Amino acid sequence: MPLEGVKNVILVLSGKGGVGKSSVTLQLALSLSLQGKSVGILDVDLTGPSIPRLVGLEDAKITQAPGGWLPVVVHDAVTEGAETTKRGSLRCMSLGFLLRDRGDAVIWRGPKKTAMVRQFLTDVYWGETDYLLIDTPPGTSDEHIALAEELLTMSTTSVEAASSSSLPRLAGAVLVTTPQAISTSDVRKEANFCVKTRIPVLGVIENMSGYACPCCGEVSNVFSSGGGRVMSEEMGLPFLGAVPVDVKFGEIVEGKIPQDIGDDSDEEGDEGVVTEAQNGTVEEDHRPLVERYRDCWSLPIFEGFAKTLLGKIEGGGATA
């Protein structure tokens, strides 16, 4: 059965490329995992799959099992005792794992893209998964139409129907924009796409809203801010919040620890720690991605988003 074991599906949409949709998807997934939920990420940005790079698993390979393709494990669940889940699992699936080389170009016409999206939805064995986040390409193209058609066929938007059957629930969509008017105008089209396809809108995230200082976290509005909030109010959509550019998150997905700016330690540095100033390199961090993410300034913001989404989905309620 397609999406067997998946309870809720969330689409992450944007009208324009380059707004940080994949990084928002990953941070939402990590935050939901830290709330004890088992999470999956399905990357259907076929011509620009970036999830393998963001999770640091570009060399991972997909395994074929009797139930279908097995997604790549980013981290396993951690439990405290028999009843309490300290951290949920995170797994992901992307066309990037199926390419022979990460530099290979995917030059496909619409029908082949549509077939690939349908195969991702029907041939991946997720197992017990609380939330499946689908990272989509920008715009409203063949992939989006195929997703909407397939998801509305194999799932339900009703809480009651989902609880009384084995169908997953299409919980809704999160729209990602940047503050600039050129981005919000494209996201308006994405919101209209949701209306026409009857996909509920869970909320709007204004990404890259200012710049967070890596030393103190103070936010400076380098370009602008507030465009996403204004658009949400004009269209009657829930506004989840604004996210500044977080340099630490960029370092974390690269698996590095930058030397602290303004470090007043002596030339020899702290015992057992090799700094960039000493040998021209950056120390590698071998902790799981989810544990490295705890060091980000943006974690409290996305924790708030995750709690809001859990309240909407598990408590019911989204804007159609």
Automatic annotation (TrEMBL):
Recorded protein name is Cytosolic Fe-S cluster assembly factor cfd1
Q: Where is the composition biased (Acidic residues)?
A: 261-273
Q: What family, per the record?
A: Belongs to the Mrp/NBP35 ATP-binding proteins family. NUBP2/CFD1 subfamily.
Provide the function of this protein.
Component of the cytosolic iron-sulfur (Fe/S) protein assembly (CIA) machinery. Required for maturation of extramitochondrial Fe-S proteins. The NBP35-CFD1 heterotetramer forms a Fe-S scaffold complex, mediating the de novo assembly of an Fe-S cluster and its transfer to target apoproteins.
Q: Which InterPro entries match?
A: Mrp/NBP35_ATP-bd, NUBP2/Cfd1_eukaryotes, P-loop_NTPase, YlxH/NBP35
* Residues bound to [4Fe-4S] cluster: 213, 216
Q: From the record, give the transmembrane residue ranges.
A: none
Span list, region Disordered:
258-281
Q: Name the species this protein comes from.
A: Paecilomyces lecythidis
